Amino acid sequence: MIRTRFAPSPTGYLHIGGVRTALFSWAYARKNNGVFVLRIEDTDLERSTPESVKAIMDGMHWVGLDYDEGPFYQTQRFDRYKEVIQQLLESGHAYRCYCSKEELEAMRAEQEAKGEKPRYDRRWRPEEGKTLPAIPADVEPVIRFRTPLDGTVAWDDAVKGRIEFSNTELDDLIIARPDGSPTYNFCVVVDDWDMQITHVIRGDDHVNNTPRQINILKALNAPLPVYGHLPMILNEDGQKMSKRRDAVSVVDYADKGILPEALLNYLARLGWGHGDDEFFDMKQFVEWFSLEAVSASASRFNQEKFLWLNAQHIKAADNSRLAALIAPRLAAAGVDTTTGPAIEEVIALVKERVQDLNALALEVDYFYQKREAAAADVEKHLAGDAVARMGRFADKLAALDSWTAASIHELFKPFCAEEGIKMGQLGMPLRVLVCGTTQTPSVDAVLALIGKEEVLRRLRA
């Protein structure tokens, strides 16, 4: 059975690179009727925080990526890691190193002075015929993995193709710190082994970790998973996305009024494609997805295309759901929708005009309360006898027996002829007086929804 995993470190927010990794891992498991595992890699005790764990869990819930097993926490598995470390020590695949911090710093300085690549010189590595230094009394040892001295580590990456590393490029990795706590690269190996992960789909910043992890798996006689390393997501300038310049947290996008399905849809298209298809839901994505179709090249995040896609998902979304999503935004702005037109009808009218939920909330507000019109709009559209003219039009509206967009529209042409004006000289003042803005959908539809009593009140205020 296919088993994939998403294994974020809780040292900050859930960023969109992580969401894409989770999405592709989730989709591969769903496509193959497999299992998707959530694992929290919290071995960095200084940087991991409960707040970050919550941010990850909230982010996964928001985007709707459900997991079948977990969440598993590495900090709850320390006994298991120590057990495997002991196994490696007994089999000769790991050893204790008593180098002090000062010795390692001196070693590095000497190598750099010679123009050599800094690396541990294996002075504590047991070898046949080698005499090890005397064990110092005041140094707690680290445990190092005994990396093969020759040969290569190679794998057929599901995304990048054949990748090879020479073991001569790898040093003897620390797998346990002086306090006995295991290190990241070691824990990942044990977790993937114990959780029977068949496919490791992750960012390509982990490519350099892979040969080290493969060597440990081989030392444990454990099966090797299939590795697939996803390319980086760049911003529009071709640079790595950063929190300072770019909205990269899931929370950032939620706050900006992005629908979760739109974010997933767009992230799916970053590095993967299905012909010219741009707009699709996750059911369709799972049906189409394959690792073979994932690009090995970095992708650029195009804000304009992203917002266009969000707009398409807003148009397709159920109006009741959209009403629930913008309710907190309207409440924060002091907009009461309990009186006035049905908000679902308002949303149906205006959602074609917006690209995000924040804009949708702004489009909705004037149906329930008149905005304060901009001075420039007042000066441009309510000058001269425009206000008096609106009073005369209000009388026409008041005489209507049927209050519909069609009946209101029927008044426009004869009124303009009677007043000797063009439609813009009626429509724009109407919008400014009734809505407080010149940017609205068809004015007859707007007036019909706001309601006769309220429209007349605003026109005659």
Automatic annotation (TrEMBL):
It holds the Pfam family Anticodon_2. It is found in: Cytoplasm. Belongs to the class-I aminoacyl-tRNA synthetase family. Glutamate--tRNA ligase type 1 subfamily. The keyword Amino-acid biosynthesis does not apply. InterPro entries: aa-tRNA-synth_I_cd-bd (IPR045462), aa-tRNA-synth_I_codon-bd_sub2 (IPR020751), aa-tRNA-synth_I_CS (IPR001412), aa_tRNA-synth_I_cd-bd_sf (IPR008925), Glu-tRNA-ligase_bac/mito (IPR004527), Glu/Gln-tRNA-synth (IPR000924), Glu/Gln-tRNA-synth_Ib_cat-dom (IPR020058), GluQ/Sye (IPR049940). It comes from Aquitalea magnusonii. This is Glutamate--tRNA ligase. A motif ('HIGH' region) lies at residues 8-18.
